[in-house]
């Protein structure tokens, strides 16, 4: 009998837990440890943030589902990792603290045979002074509660515009090393669409602010893509969309301080500038959770497990951009020191960024961090679960399932406006996620036919279809496993 | 505002009939790309 503990119940943790439970017999124990009581389909937060979808539509409580399906659930947060146990507990464990229920505040050593760290990122708002969701007129759409607040902030500004006040709206990244530009991109297009729907578009100045060097970088170094019968660069496509919608842009901006209605930033020229606004949605930087790890004698071995995020089978050797290789990226998400620990999704430490690193003239790093949200999170979680299943069933370690982001496709279906007949979407599919310049030297590291963009109503329908399909899948309804990650 | 998308292009982008077929086409194409498998990048000796 094996016990598999999964830390986190986001996209990655939930995918791992559901697949393990489906494929392993009941003699094996699957336990999810998460401080959150609800599962949330994060990509639809965008629609919550514009008031077109209630947050209840994108979440459901985990405990009843897990009880029904035979998955253990502890509403607790991880505190420290003990991969060798300690002097009193011979088995490896994670020290966790309950955050709800009768056990609230109690700590427990949760032992495991296999550990999947799917804790995702810490939303590191503190890294930018004054960037606090709901304060200083700044908002976030990173969680459903943040998105709810953002909608209340946005509708207030819309009401003011209806009374004749001109307003400035600022959307983008709130730190020099933020990632998830795609979410901010979706939000700015949805907000712009809502302003037109409320007939106040001419009262608003809408501005994109980002740490990207060019529009359409998305933390993936941009891409060369097929668009209809043309081949164009992603920055050309996004420029076309922004110009067509009268959205201004500020690029290479490392936002470092927020005051009430003012975003201060440094650009790549080393200039310190500021931008005023009446409503802002700025994505914070992501960081690891600051976990500590100890060996059986209680010595600190944090560096064996973490470098911010969790250390996995990546090549972390520091090297210049010109020497980066697609082979630097992990394939199995297994920790090299402890082969029963894995970190899929956002929880693994990337070897480096995907976008070319850039510094301002003052030496400040202004580079998007690599995105691992959504589809890659699900795919990597499933392959980790499959390797653990094969290992348990085969009786010896199996790492047959591999999934490097350098050999994996991803679709970013970006909503560009909500509405069954008036909606729009920008669908960008890229293969591979991390460019492979050896395999595709003439097309910027990606396969052209599989790297393409489309704009139109179909994109909105697609995103809506994915919303319903993935919530159906997450609820483990009949034949849920037929829906790919 | 600079009109970068022509009226004809916009008509095609928002026409429900055209977009219905585009939806089917996109669904299949995306499925092929993302569900078409993934793997490693390192050579095994």
TrEMBL record, chain A:
Pfam families on file? Pyr_redox_2
Q: Which InterPro entries match?
A: FAD/NAD-bd_sf, FAD/NAD-binding_dom, SQRD
Where are the annotated segments for Disordered?
A: 353-377
Q: Where is the FAD/NAD(P)-binding domain?
A: 3-151
Sample GO molecular function, one term? oxidoreductase activity
The organism sits in which domain of life?
A: Bacteria
Please name the PANTHER family in this protein's record: FAD-DEPENDENT PYRIDINE NUCLEOTIDE-DISULPHIDE OXIDOREDUCTASE, PTHR43755
Name of the protein in its database record: NAD(P)/FAD-dependent oxidoreductase
